[in-house]
């Protein structure tokens, strides 16, 4: 049976893939890109996979694999014919050991919410999905830690932890789909990094399967462990190119007893920067998020998704969230801060939400921006770190540069972390607009020693621009590490490291 | 001239080294330890060093090099005849390039306050001291970051930052001597990790010189940068075996406007654990330190250093520190918490210090414990992570095991991080006592999946016990990385990785 399915796949392209054709780029559209020297998938391989995983966990029907081939943004499309859905570490170990010997390329995939084409195949890499690796294994209330399989959905994990007065230290718009293993593999940042720090600090342990199938147990749940090199750090942000993360252990902050959300409108970006600086000083330890949205961006999210904006038209908007242990204290701190900001005319208008439902409503204006941009057609997505002094100038310069050729050019993001999301949209992919943006924006960012990918990673789309943020010596060392850990290069090829 | 100095050194042992003889172990006392296949230092090498650094920065006189050969605990003693004191990255690059070609072994040394023999030579490795790499290069108030050379003393850095309302996110007893580069190289933990997280989270960038002299510039000052593997993480905690850290960039928390210190006495360890759990829940975001000291330990620090203890005799003591942005709120939170603890008879007695001078006095009881233990003679020093449920049992079991053969067996440390400092003292080094402790304590720790070195690192003394906390596969990968980054093994040999 498997043999027939594979034959059919090879002979006829899937009609439903056409749906995305206008916006997705396949490997053929990258003229200099060549398929690596990997084995072609044979029927006997599919049989081996099936013998390891059981028949229901090896997908080869065109309709079944379609969703695994296309990224969430619908900007890139792979050509896999086979998706594997293991349930545990041992199965992943067996699969990788086999693929390594056969030189079959593998694309690990979590919730497939990545924004740089890192989680979908480029050619015909077998997709290794963590969607069935979805067990929470242990919650330790004494040490405030959790151990979970890598495929647990972020929101599901957080909901479970909320029962115990704990929380996951990251949160992002894709929380309903993204997997915790994918978050760790991509070093996801998100909305509360300024309070809870990066995953390099809060991931305590990782279990990963190496390219050759060997299980690497760094599944520590200790806050402190200085016994040798901290190998788990290598996997955080390596986007599945050094190993497949199978379990993670996280340090968990206490769930705040009180959360307040201030939603503000402001006249200028200078005011936005001032509010950030002052909130950091005045709200101190209770500040848990500091986000901004520009006017063009607010227009996009409200119009394209039909959401309502409780404040009137303004040049800029901010969301300032506080999280603390004492509602009275928190409210007092926030009120004093906001009164000062209004009295000094730094903030034009504002509202404070204390009810969770009202907070969720406001957060939608921020969290659903990515979705709203897709409604325009094709989204050129950039995620850069910049010094505050030139932060918004990047948007102004880019807007002028693309001019009328783009539907819009917007700026929003995590000002509290110096992280700007700069997005340009057009009805469909335009090489002309792309050429206006790249490498211009990378050069711009590099000039100020910014990062050309603050939190999204390099994946497929940005790997060849790594030189704008990393030195040649650093890239060379990365390549050596990759070569050492995955000598056949089977793990997520064409990702992270540059082609040359 | 250099030639004569070297000759004299080779022919006559330094008389002042005798002073430590009773307590320091030299390489001859480790029967299975063999000098690596490194070049012997020749006069021409010293001349080359002098030509790179200038004559005043190459020490070869026995009296001058003595302090660099002996660790702070006076438990190990190296035999270097040459100490180099470079001023900048370029000089270190030149030195390492030369040493790598000549296969001269190098021991990087910061403030030499390490507790596992990692910062002193074992045989005749050349010491590369960062003591003149002491410039603070940039403080950025917008992004709250600092860039400094690696030899800046931790306390000096913090004092400078205090002028700007900022602070270094680590603090430890050795702050007056330890270097920030050494802190990073050893992934120092210290007194406030539970609040500000580990250096894996707060180090934003590192510049390091590789074994072959190549400068690796990962000197990012951005909060977020996901462009390729996070190479700087490899250097954090690698104890100078993968490269010499020359500059570091740190993310800085705002300096708290209000600090309170509660000093408590308690009847049992169960009460200590309860106070920790409750402080985490009730003090939440303002809790900045949670330390404990047992009775035996308090006796040692008060008697050996003639310090006074403001509370009466008790089985256990705790220091609970809060740091926040609003003195009234902080005091209110702490008072409610302490009233509850006293009312519920979990705490026997307590005092709260708000004046900095009074706080310093109390902190001395904690910070000077290591020093007080040395007064006894030889200190067998252990630094382990354990689950709270078995945390103090380790001390009780060990105390029973060493019995009257030890001067004392004490427990103290960072209960907030699950980090126990377990120390045994004797008048002089006793192999019998050592054999009672090791490998017993490592086996004990391993049974509970603890770490045999929570924050001190492995250095020279604990490298061969790495297997109690790390899997064979993990150690193998560490060795591969070492081999890749330092093929001649010149950087801090006999450290971190096991002999076999």
Mean pLDDT of chain A: 93
Distance between the termini of chain A: 41 Å
Quote the beta fraction of chain A. 15-25%
Strand order of the largest sheet of chain A: 15-12-14-13-17-18-16
Given the C-alpha coordinates, what overall shape of chain A results?
A: globular
Instruction: Using the coordinates shown, work out and report the CATH topology of the domain at 136-251 in chain A.
Output: Uridine Diphospho-n-acetylenolpyruvylglucosamine Reductase, domain 3
**Quaternary state of the chains:** homodimer
Helix/strand/pairing category of chain A: alpha+beta
Please state the CA-atom Rg of chain A, rounded to the nearest Å: 23 Å
Helix content of chain A: 25-40%
- For the secondary structure, the number of strands of chain A is 18
The name of the CATH architecture of the domain at 136-251 in chain A is 2-Layer Sandwich
**Main sheet of chain A, how many strands, which sense, barrel?**
7 strands, antiparallel
Weakly predicted, low-confidence segments of chain A = 1-22
**Most residues in contact, chain pair and counts:** A-B, 91 and 91 residues
| Total helical segments of chain A | 18
Assign the CATH class of the domain at 136-251 in chain A.
Alpha Beta
The gist of it:
Two copies of one chain form a homodimer. Chain A is of the alpha+beta class and 500 residues long.
């Amino acid at each position: 049976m498997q043999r027939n399915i594979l034959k059919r796949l090879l002979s006829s392209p899937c009609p439903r893939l056409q749906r995305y054709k206008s916006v997705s780029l396949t490997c053929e559209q990258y003229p200099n890109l060549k398929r690596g020297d990997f084995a072609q998938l044979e029927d006997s391989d599919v049989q081996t996979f099936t013998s390891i995983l059981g028949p229901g966990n090896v997908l080869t029907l065109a309709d079944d694999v379609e969703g695994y081939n296309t990224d969430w943004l619908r900007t890139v499309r792979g050509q896999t014919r086979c998706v594997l859905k293991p349930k545990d570490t041992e199965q992943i170990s067996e699969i990788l050991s086999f693929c390594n010997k056969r030189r079959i390329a593998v694309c690990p995939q979590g919730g497939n919410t990545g924004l740089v084409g890192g989680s979908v195949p480029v050619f015909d890499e077998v997709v290794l999905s963590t969607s069935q690796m979805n067990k929470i294994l242990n919650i330790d209330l004494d040490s405030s830690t959790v151990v979970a399989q890598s495929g647990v959905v972020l929101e599901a994990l957080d909901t479970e932890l909320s029962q115990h007065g704990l929380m996951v230290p990251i949160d992002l718009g894709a929380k309903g789909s993204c997997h915790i293993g994918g978050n760790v593999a991509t070093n996801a940042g998100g909305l509360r990094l300024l309070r809870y720090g990066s995953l390099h600090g809060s991931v305590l342990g990782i279990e990963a399967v190496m390219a050759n199938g060997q299980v690497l147990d760094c599944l520590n749940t200790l806050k402190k462990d200085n016994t040798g090199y901290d190998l788990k750090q290598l996997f955080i942000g390596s986007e599945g190119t050094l190993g497949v993360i199978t379990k993670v252990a996280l340090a968990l902050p206490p769930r705040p007893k009180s959360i307040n959300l201030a939603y503000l409108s402001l006249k200028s970006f200078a005011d936005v920067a001032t509010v950030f600086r002052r909130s950091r000083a005045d709200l101190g330890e209770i500040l848990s998020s500091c986000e901004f949205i520009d006017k063009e961006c607010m227009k996009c999210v409200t119009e394209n998704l039909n959401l309502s904006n409780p404040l009137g038209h303004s040049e800029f908007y901010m969301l300032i969230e506080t999280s603390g242990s004492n509602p009275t204290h928190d409210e007092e701190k926030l009120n004093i801060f906001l009164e000062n900001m209004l009295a000094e005319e730094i903030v034009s208008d504002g509202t404070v939400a204390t009810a969770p439902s009202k907070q969720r409503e406001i957060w939608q204006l921020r969290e659903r921006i990515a979705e709203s941009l897709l409604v325009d057609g094709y989204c050129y997505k950039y995620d850069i770190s910049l010094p505050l002094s030139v932060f918004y100038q990047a948007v102004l310069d880019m807007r002028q540069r693309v001019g009328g050729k783009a539907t819009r050019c917007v700026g929003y993001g995590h000002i509290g972390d110096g992280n700007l999301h700069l997005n340009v949209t057009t009805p469909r992919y335009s090489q002309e607009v792309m050429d206006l943006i790249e490498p211009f924006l990378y050069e711009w960012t590099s000039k100020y020693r910014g990062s050309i990918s603050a939190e999204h990673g390099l994946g497929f789309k940005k790997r060849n621009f790594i030189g704008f943020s990393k030195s040649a010596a650093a890239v060379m060392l990365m390549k050596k590490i990759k070569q050492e850990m995955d000598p056949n290069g089977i793990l997520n090829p064409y990702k992270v490291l540059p082609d040359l």
